[in-house]
Amino acid sequence: MAGRRAALKAIDWTAFAERVPPNQRTMFNNLKTRSDAIAAKLTSLPEKPPAIDWSYYRSVVAKAGMVDEFEKKFSALKVPEPVDTQTAIINAQEEEANKTATAYIEASKARIAQYEKQLEKFKNMIPFDQMTIEDLNDTFPETKLDKEKHPYWPHKPIADL
Amino acid sequence: MLSRLVFVSASALKSSGPIGAGVVHASRCLHTSSQSLAPVPPLPEKGGKVRHGFIPEELFQLLYPKTGVTVFSLNQLDSSTSLFCKDYLKTGPYMLGAGLLLYMLSKEIYVINHETFAAASIGAVIIYGVKKFGPSVGAFADKLNEEKVAKAQEVKDVAMSSLVQATEDEKKEQWRVEGRAMLFDAKRNNVAMLLETNYRERLHMVTNEVKRRLDYQIALQDLNRRLEQEHMINWVEKSVISSITPQQEKESIAKCITDLKVLAKATQAKATA
Predict the structure, then answer these.
(1) Domain for residue A131, yes or no?
(2) Which residue of chain A has the CA closest to B224?
(3) Predicted confidence (pLDDT) per residue in B236-267, tens digit
(4) Nearest alpha-carbon partner for B159 in A133, A125, A144, A106
(5) Set of chain B residues whose Cβ sits within 8 Å of the Cβ of A134
(6) Residue A152's domain spans which residues?
(7) Is residue B160 less than 8 Å (CB to CB) from chain A?
(8) What pTM value is reported for the model?
(9) Coiled-coil regions in this chain (chain A) (predicted)?
(10) Domain locations in chain B?
């Protein structure tokens, strides 16, 4: 009977729901309904079946020894536990998910670093009314006028004016 | 005012460094290298102070030690007014200017001819125009510059706020990712619950089947007993009926009739009594 009652971890569905991003909400709802259905089915079944009243049967059934035989066989019977095939798969999935999650977090951190760098650049920028055009071109390289491509004033296509 | 016009042209041109802006005091060395060593000091808001539109204030300050200061005060106060000279007209350089003018006119160093009147009229018109329209033109130029700066500032603000927002969102997503363990706990729970349910169902099934078999035996027994009983009753009846001989039948019928007669008499007597 060992391992029959694998510890059911209490799941905080509200906290779980908070962490679900909006685009995966339907999947989460499906999971929740399925889990609730399974839990309901579990609680509706009593843990042990009602015991068989052997003495009553022994007194009623005429055939000698039949009840005793049944009783002996019944108590000797061991119902096999269902084999757990899925937990290993789930653990493997969890491993994979952890890996992708760490990769995602790395990428996210890199993105944050990038944003921070740009933010720093903006913060340390000199105010606009103290800039020269050179400073402007340094801070925002896209404002630099391409003198090779358009050698004559205004150094950009007329449509861009 | 004139200096503001200079600023408009300076911001419109692509000025390479401080050369070109009107009255900026260039604090950068001009000939060391093409790279700037320090940030450009901010351009002053207004140009240098001038008197009468074209004579710099510094000239007056320069001349005060040389030409002396005669305070020309409008109300006759005592000499303590000399301490508050800046409120009143200090006439030193003006004397110099007037003296120079008279000298040039009287010695005919500057000859008055028809061009003098042309210059005077043109000057009058120019001064009138500048005085009348100067401030508005200046304000217009300022507004143009303001708009440019405001646009750039807006771009910068939007960029900064979007960056902050993006950082916030990324952090939120990281927090979300941390909840992934819950998903797998839920799945494992489901699996465990399903297994448990299955096991209980099996137990129940075994018990029920055993019970059913025992009950079947009991029902079989009862059925057998009932059949035996009924058969025995039928058989007994049949044998009793078949054992009644005709002689016995006649006797019993006669007895019944006599009994009935007695009963009738009794009831009749009871009825009449």
Answers:
(1) yes
(2) A62
(3) 999 988 887 777 888 889 999 999 999 999 99
(4) A125
(5) 16-17
(6) 127-160
(7) yes
(8) 0.57
(9) none
(10) 1-109
